[in-house]
Amino acid sequence: MMWIGLTGGIATGKSTVARLLKGLGHPVIDADIIAHTALVQGSPVHDKIVHVFGSEILNGTTIDRTKLGRIVFRDKKKLNQLEEIVHPYVQEQVRHQRQRLSGKKYVWAFYDVPLLFEKNLEDQFDAIIVVAASKEMQIERLQRRSHLGDQEIQDRLKSQIPIEEKVKKTKFVLWNNDSEKTLESDLKALLTQLPRP
């Protein structure tokens, strides 16, 4: 089974590609979903996050992602602090999920990880797919789907390596400036080029 990294930038359509891959019968492990479980009371890192960032990030007993996001996306140091707490937890969960998949007869398993390049994870993969979109399209999608202000959108874009730099780091690029139908067609074509066991 080949281990394929799936990454991109905020609002480039990576989640759509992950959904399409699942629809085609391929397993996808989602780093964001695992990271969200870290914020739930009872997770091994919940209390540490609250201790570091304060009780103002809570909504009842649950960490409010919007409140936490407002803190960390404004301050690179605080974002790094959060990632240092959450990242090892995510890596451990991924390792367990990957072990479970390895006994099955899959050609590829995909790991959907937004910060693949930011965290220097390139060496872990047999191949990497970057889902890309123009900056204008990223901003338009963020405005449409979230209640973020212009400054918050810029803060989130700046927290990641620019998409054009990520595109240069792999030969497998899916541009998503068009319809989902076009994206699906391009994805199917790209899958024929991926390495196989």
Order of helices and strands: EHEHHEEHHEEHHHEH
CATH topology of the largest domain: Rossmann fold
The oligomeric status of these chains comes to single chain
- Number of helices, counting only DSSP H or I runs of 4 residues or more: 9
Which CATH C-level class of the largest domain is it? Alpha Beta
Q: Gyration radius, to the nearest Å?
A: 17 Å
Globally, the shape reads globular
Structure description:
The chain folds into two domains: 1-27 and 107-191, Rossmann fold (3-Layer(aba) Sandwich); 37-103, Rossmann fold (3-Layer(aba) Sandwich), CATH 3.40.50. 50% of the residues lie in helices and 15% in strands. The chain is built from nine helices and seven strands, in the order E-H-E-H-H-E-E-H-H-E-E-H-H-H-E-H. It has helices at 14-23, 31-38, 46-53, 65-72, 76-102, 135-145, 150-158, 163-167, 180-191, and strands spanning 2-8, 28-30, 58-59, 62-63, 108-112, 127-132, 172-175. The strands form two sheets. Strands 2-5-1-6-7 form a five-stranded parallel sheet, with helices on both faces. Strands 3-4 form a two-stranded antiparallel ribbon. A hairpin with a 2-residue loop joins strand 3 and strand 4 (62-63). The mean pLDDT is 94.
